[in-house]
């Protein structure tokens, strides 16, 4: 049984249709695996999925036959037996995706006004505003990367229309221009003033709480390796589900077994030759060939 909650079994004479997995089509195979949503699972040659998990639009009739056939782009989409923990995880992933889409909207417009890109900054940019706003250094990728790291805004990418107000720069970063010209920034200016403190991570809060309960006053330094661990796990998962690597591992195991069998056969032949030479030597002393052992 491949799909969650499906009790249909494949046997000779069953009334339902069962389909093999497209092992030769890598892109379509990954779509099928993603739709089934089984952890650390890869289909084999004997894996089957029944017709209950496909819609009517996934089938097509072949000319001259009455048995429908799956389309080349068909993907299983009907699943009713997902466990509760998987449903909760899928719900969280959907919410994270929606939150990411909201954060990707870099411009918050209200009656033609744009909000400062800094976190929780309420200054608005519009024609005739009192505050001074600066554009993002799109022409300088190195400086732009420093600005993005300083702003520390999740799921955000700067655009040409993004603005940041002067409240996030020091006095040394701003150059006052005489006359009616607006102030400018120095060439290597980076925003560094952010009054709103970011929320602490859960691990750090739990560590401080445990330290206060135990009466420890030592500072706990906790490094966050979220990105490195996620990248390592994704590489391991990718290697585990890669059909090429799976096929190569099977080939290596097959060759190792063949070599082991050949060694056993050579050893048995060597013992047989040794016994024959011994019998020949006892009967006649004519044939005395030197025995050479191979290592």
Fold and architecture overview:
- Among the domains are: 18-82, no CATH class; 99-185, no CATH class.
- The chain is elongated and about 120 Å long.
- The protein contains 6 helices and 11 strands.
- Helix content is 38%, strand content 10%.
- It has helices spanning 26-36, 84-104, 141-151, 202-214, 226-241, 243-283, and strands at residues 18-20, 48-50, 59-61, 68-70, 109-110, 113-115, 124-125, 133-135, 163-165, 174-175, 184-185.
- It has 295 residues and is α+β, with helices and mostly antiparallel strands.
- Residues 1-79, 112-194 form the THAP-type domain.
Overview features:
single chain; 295 residues; alpha+beta; three-stranded antiparallel β-sheet; two-stranded antiparallel sheet; 6 helices; 10% strand
Biggest beta-sheet profile: 3 strands, antiparallel
What does the oligomeric state look like here?
A: single chain
Radius of gyration: 35 Å
What form results from the Cα inertia axes? elongated
Question: Roughly what percent helix?
Answer: 25-40%
Secondary-structure-based class equals alpha+beta
The end-to-end distance, rounded to whole angstroms, is: 49 Å
Tell how many strands the DSSP assignment holds.
Answer: 11
**If helices are DSSP runs of H or I spanning 4 or more residues, what is the number of helices?**
6
Order of helices and strands: EHEEEHEEEEHEEEHHH
pLDDT < 50 stretches: 217-231
How much is the average pLDDT? 76
The order of strands across the largest sheet is 5-6-7
Query: Which range does the strand content fall in?
Result: 5-15%
